[in-house]
Amino acid sequence: MKRRVGLGITLAACAAVEAAEPTAVAPPANTAPAAAVQPPPVRKPLDLRIGDVRKYMMPNEFREALAAPDADKNTVVVEAKRELLPVKYEEPIPIWPLGPLYWALKNPANSWRILLPDINRGPAGPPDVVPPPVFRWGP
Questions:
Q1: Which of 2, 61, 109, 111 could make an SS bond with 104 (beta carbons 3.0 to 4.6 A apart)?
Q2: Average pLDDT, stretch 38-54?
Q3: Would the pLDDT of 105 be above 90?
């Protein structure tokens, strides 16, 4: 009985997959020959030339680049500041008595966070004013 049900489910799944895939349709007999089909247009090759470098650099930077040793001429440095996007797991979790449970019901995908310490909140208690003693093995 179980094998028949499993076989029936398998055949139904295969039929659904086969019905979902488009089948190749043969072209009608009265179409134009294959030689009449136009080839795709030829694309222009990619132009990677910089052009006049003086448009992109100040004159003193250009002179420094020309006077630099070969190792510096082959090095490319790109400087940029990446803007950090707000992340959902950095939002604070409420701390009042039933707040975390309500928050977990409202955010079920992140409810695991109520079991961990909050990264946005500092350590509990007053800050350490006196540094802890340094551990040593001997006198």
A1: 111
A2: 82
A3: yes
CA 73 vs. chain centroid, Å, equals: 32
57, 66 contact by CB (below 8 A):
no
Q: Taking the CA of residue 97 as centre, how many other CA atoms within 13 Å lie in the half-sphere pointing to its CB?
A: 0
Q: Are 104 and 114 in contact (CB under 8 A)?
A: yes
- Is the pLDDT at 72 greater than 70, yes or no? no
How far is Cα 113 from Cα 97, in angstroms, rounded to an integer?
16
Neighbours of 111 (CB within 10 A): 15
CB-neighbour burial class of residue 93 (10 A; exposed 0-12, middle 13-18, buried 19+): buried
Amino acid at site 133: P
Percent of the chain with pLDDT over 70: 79
Query: Among 118, 121, 86, which Cα is nearest to 100's?
Result: 118
* Chain centroid to CA 53: 34
